[in-house]
Amino acid sequence: MKKLYLTTALTLLACPVLADITPEELWESWQATMADMGASLTAGQQERQGAVLVFHDVKTSVDTGYFNIEQVIDIMRLEALADGSVAVSYDSDFGGGGTATFPEAPTSNITLSGDYSGTHGIVTGSANDYVYDFTIAAMNMTSVSGLSDDLESQTGVLTRATSDNKFSDMSGQIHFTQTSAGMNMSYSFLIGKAIGSQDTITELGGQNPQIKQSQNSSVEGYSGDISLFLPHADPNAESGRFLRMGLTLDARLAIEAFNLTQKTASPYLNMDVIFSQGSSNYGVSIDSDSASLSGQGDAMEIEVNSSGFGPQPYRVAIAENALAMSVPLYPDDALQEARYMVYLGGVTVNDTIWAIADPAGTLSHAPADFTLDASAAVQLLLDWTNFDTVKTWQGPPAILNSVKLQDFLVAFENARLTGQGEVQFSNDGPDPVPNGGQLNFNFSGVIALLDKLGSLPLVDPSITAGAKGMLGVFATSNGSDNLTSRIEFTHGGHISVNGQQVK
Fold first, then answer.
1. 3-class DSSP state for residue 152?
2. Which residue of 96, 240, 322, 455 has the fewest CB atoms within a 10 Å radius of its CB?
3. DSSP states along 417-486
4. Res. 40 pLDDT band, cuts 50 70 90
5. Going by C-beta distance under 8 Å and a sequence separation of 6 or more, which residues neighbour residue 82?
6. Is the pLDDT of residue 370 over 90?
């Protein structure tokens, strides 16, 4: 939700009601906060009209080194109220733009325009400790982006993307405190509905035709709770300074429903994609040691219609899903953990796909499940918070010490494959080599499944026959269609399966 930043950039401040605050104090606090974040907040003109401090051409500018962008609001008003609070409003148009430049990628230009309606906010507290409660009835924003003019003339590639976004029923509260150590902010928000559309046209130059893509999306019930501590630091210091000084971020986001449709039209390919996601929630955390991402959701569905690919549509549905991953950020002499987990439950495909894959109805077409949960003990060599170092780094970013498989599951038809174990690695050579540990796998119903797969029209029977032969060599039978496999790793890179050395 990048656009959310533009909505709240001027409201990244806020908290408790213990003292009065003036419009001038609030403005100065906002400016100081933006400066701490490496951004700037300025006004072309300001004037006092009685109890109201009026600002014209209010500009927020951000330059991260990868992209720079600014937003300009025509008029903003800060009104001193009788109870010592300040009312904030900015029912007006806004505009702006900037550029985006990433490593190994072309430079893009961006222009912005839009308007707010029904904005209202109340700030209570003091300059260093205040709460900002706000509502915005609606916000409309249009952006146009494309390759830089120089690059278009050099390559003959023309790309233009126009996006329109409408947000309604927005509300939130920001609690802001400023201390000698840094800024603390807690932020909760709710967006009743967000509707977006984007049209992209790409011309490859010469006689090549256009590629057109259109996209429409809607989000309902988008909410979040965010906590941030931003330490005081020199905005001109090297990249990553905030993280190394103790920046922490914890964000919990949720949506009630999300829908996306995408159409691609060209002489080469015409394709429609429909994606929907039911209730879901996500989390992002950053602290002095690591960064983590998590998410889980219900009722995900992807549908594809494409010309020239037989009967339509192709549809995949997932009843529930989950993802979790974490990575260390800083080099350390001690071992650090990286983790990755993905879960897909109740995976099904529609009759169109089954008619191609299993026309005789050999399989039961029951839902499938997949789980992978693994972690690695590493010694990190690369400082991921130093963007200048990341851009020039060569070689592996970390030394791999061990990999642990906490959980592995593939369940399809009546067959199940599960696994657990841990493997240690030696780093004496140019590449990590296993030198200890073992992995244990259990198979049930796999032989019967291979027999069924061998009768399907899209599967070569020799493949399933070969798979059954490999199971006979590398797995031990524990009964009717129940097999186990123990893979052991020893010093020198040797590998044995069920006691039989294979390397």
1. helix
2. 455
3. EEEEEEEEEE-SSSS-EEEEEEEEEEEESHHHHHHHHTTSTTS-HHHHHHHHHHHHHH-EE-STTEEEEE
4. very high
5. none
6. yes
Average pLDDT of the residues of the chain: 86
Residue with structure tokens 């609070």? 85
pLDDT in tens, 1-20: 333 333 333 343 333 334 58
Q: Which long-range contacts (CB under 8 A, 24 or more apart) does 268-274 make?
A: 268/211, 269/306, 269/307, 270/306, 270/307, 271/304, 271/305, 271/306, 271/307, 272/304, 272/305, 272/306, 273/302, 273/303, 273/304, 273/305, 274/301, 274/302, 274/303, 274/304
Q: Which helix (H) or strand (E) holds 387?
A: helix 387-392
Question: In Å, how far are 48, 97, 345, 441 from 421, measured between CA atoms?
Answer: 70, 52, 23, 9
Residue 438 and residue 487 in contact, taking contact as beta carbons nearer than 8 Å: yes
CA distance 162 to 200: 6
| CB 289 within 8 Å of CB 325 | no
Tell me the H-state helices in 74-164: 149-155
Bridge partners (DSSP) of residue 166 are 140, 195
Q: Looking at residues 420-444, what average pLDDT do you find?
A: 90
CA angle 219, 186, 81 (to 5 degrees): 100
CA distance 336 to 462: 45
Both tokens of 499, joined, read: 């006691």
Those residues whose C-beta lies under 8 Å from the C-beta of residue 367, and which sit 6 or more positions away, are 319, 345, 346, 347, 348
223: confidence class by pLDDT, cuts 50, 70, 90: very high
In 3D, which of 126, 144, 168, 170 has the Cα closest to residue 19? Answer: 126
Question: Taking the complete model, does pTM exceed 0.85, yes or no?
Answer: no
Q: What is the pLDDT of residues 156-173, one digit of tens each?
A: 567 788 999 999 999 999
Is the peptide bond preceding residue 235 cis, with omega within 30 degrees of 0? no
**Rounded CA separation 23/470 (Å):** 76
Identity (one letter) of the amino acid at 446? V
- Note whether 263 and 213 are within 8 A (CB): yes
Nearest to 400 by CA among 372, 421, 431: 431
Q: Span 108-115, mean pLDDT?
A: 88
Least confident of 11-25, 28-42, 183-197, 266-280: 11-25
| Cα 268 from Cα 258, distance rounded (Å) | 29
Indicate the helix (H) or strand (E) that contains 357.
helix 351-357
Instruction: Check residue 13 and give its pLDDT.
Output: 36
Cα separation of 324 and 374, whole Å? 10
